[in-house]
Amino acid sequence: MLDLAIIGGGPAGLAAGLYATRGGIKNVVMFEKGMPGGQITSSSEMENYPGVPQVVDGITFMAPWTEQCTRFGLKIEMENAVRVEKVGSHFVVHFEGGKSVEAKAVIVATGSKPKRAGVKGEDEYFGRGVSTCATCDGFFYKGKEVAVLGGGDTALEEAQYLANICSKVYLIHRRDEFRAAPSTVERAKKCDKIEFVLNAVVDEILGDASGVTGVKVSLKDGSSRQINVPGIFTFVGLNVQNGVLKDDAGNSICELTPGGNVKVNHKMQTSLPGLFAAGDLREDSPKQVVCAASDGAIAALSVIDYLREHA
């Protein structure tokens, strides 16, 4: 039986593994269905992590985390956890394919993934001109015009990233104000390759057999506009990855908010003893890497206390 199972390999999960093993927990395994790193690996720039003054992309930023976090004995297994259940005083983590493991405590740090915009044509052309990752797909539009949909930090940051590759970026936002940090907005406004299309709603993503050919936009004044581009990048928020916390009947094994985030206290404890949540999964998460790492460390230290109390 594991002393601790960590589900999720982003900043929260990796930090939890580091603090748990360095804190003396011997049998700790982190389960991640792909390579560790998390959502931040899709970001084109990281500039606000304390102690890292240089601006780097998300993949470069996360590269040393795995090495550091495994130094004290954390094991990483590429398994897709699908369900956690509590059986008596311990937990059973079930994986895709039927495998399962038992653990005395569990930290869930499964994070979130980009939402779909719900625009006509989005599903049809996803992967054929519709993308949620500028770092992954921006190169395909080198020297071409593209559109970006969204008004948060990610949308504006990725628009700036694309402006370094593309000939022009149309930034489409349904309001004339942004959720992004003022400094991010100011930098985007100074970029002469970015055209702001504000108070606008994308009605449809247009395309043909070869992929996206443009987007139809409705403006606040009642007029419409067609923007001819071969690609659109959508950044309209995140979906909470809480499926692992649902039982066979679809009921949550711990208390969730109406939005699906996990309710935790300041120790990252959920309503189910021995189960902890960290990072973007938990309620009121600021969705910043430094905060996710902090959550993971707090959760791990709380697990140390929990295991000591239940030895």
UniProtKB/TrEMBL annotation:
Coiled coil: none annotated. The keyword Flavoprotein applies. It is an enzyme of class 1 (oxidoreductase). It catalyses: [thioredoxin]-dithiol + NADP(+) = [thioredoxin]-disulfide + NADPH + H(+). Keywords: Disulfide bond, FAD, Flavoprotein, NADP, Oxidoreductase, Redox-active center. Binds 1 FAD per subunit. SUPFAM superfamilies: FAD/NAD(P)-binding domain. GO terms for molecular function: thioredoxin-disulfide reductase (NADPH) activity. Pfam families: Pyr_redox_2. It comes from the Bacteria. Its cofactor is FAD. Residues 3-296 form the FAD/NAD(P)-binding domain. Belongs to the class-II pyridine nucleotide-disulfide oxidoreductase family. This is Thioredoxin reductase. The gene is trxB.
